[in-house]
Request: fold
Amino acid sequence: MAPLDQVFAVARQTLPDAELSILTFPASPNAAFTVRKKLPGDWSRLGNQYLYIDRFSGEALRVDRFDRLPASARLVQSMSPLHYGSFGGHATRILWIIMGLVPGVLSISGFLMWWNRGGAGGAGDSPAKSQANALRHVEETHV
Reply:
């Protein structure tokens, strides 16, 4: 296996303007080191740049720059920051929390409005029937 000093040196030399955020060790005997780096302007807090380093020679095998990926790959990589609301700092996270609570609040308020109108038993009265009941009530109280 390549020495870690060499792996870090290759990671620093490749995309030197990006900050190293994660180094993942090979998961299987033939796998490579995976380095994740963050360039200024990346949506993801951990970066969108991936570097693969050979575990034996310590050489860079492949560099996946976000801006050079096909549109479909960029879309897939953008899902996580969009899902967690981590692309715009705390403001978008707070907005995402509020947006996540809205469906539940609307469900509860809708149920309460339905319940206050009479629920399942009295909600089906037509306006004519309601008016007739109101007139009958007035006649009974004035007799």
The mean pLDDT is 88. Residues 88-123 form one domain.
